[in-house]
Amino acid sequence: PAGRLYLQVASVNRELAAVYAEYLSQRDIPAFVSNSPEKQRFWVMVGPIQDGEHLTEIQSALSTAGFDTY
Q1: How many other C-beta atoms are found inside a 10 Å radius of the C-beta of residue 5?
Q2: What is the SS3 assignment for 35?
Q3: Which of 7, 18, 21, 60 is 20–30 Å from 42 (CA)?
């Protein structure tokens, strides 16, 4: 949604996106799969991010889980 911050952590096929989102969700990281403009690609998104402190916490949790944000 507009006005909220989300981080994209992957752009992969549908099956892998679902695995990644589940993996992150099990680690209390609010992740979900979103469509991308490319037909066969799906984004793994994390958020919404509430504020700067929450962003730092999420980025640290993602790093611990082996994910980079971009």
Answers
A1: 14
A2: strand
A3: 60
Q: Is the CB of residue 5 less than 8 Å from the CB of residue 59? A: no
Q: What residue spans of the chain are helical by DSSP H?
A: 14-26, 52-64
Distances from the Cα of 38 to the Cα of 27, 58, 70, angstroms: 28, 26, 17
Query: What is the model's pLDDT at position 3?
Result: 65
- For 32-68, how does the pLDDT look when each residue is reduced to its tens digit (9 = 90+)? 999 999 999 999 999 999 999 999 999 999 999 999 7
pTM: 0.87
Whole-number Å distance between alpha carbons of 27 and 35: 23
Q: Tell me the mean pLDDT in the region 23-36.
A: 96
Distance CA 48, CA 41 (A): 21
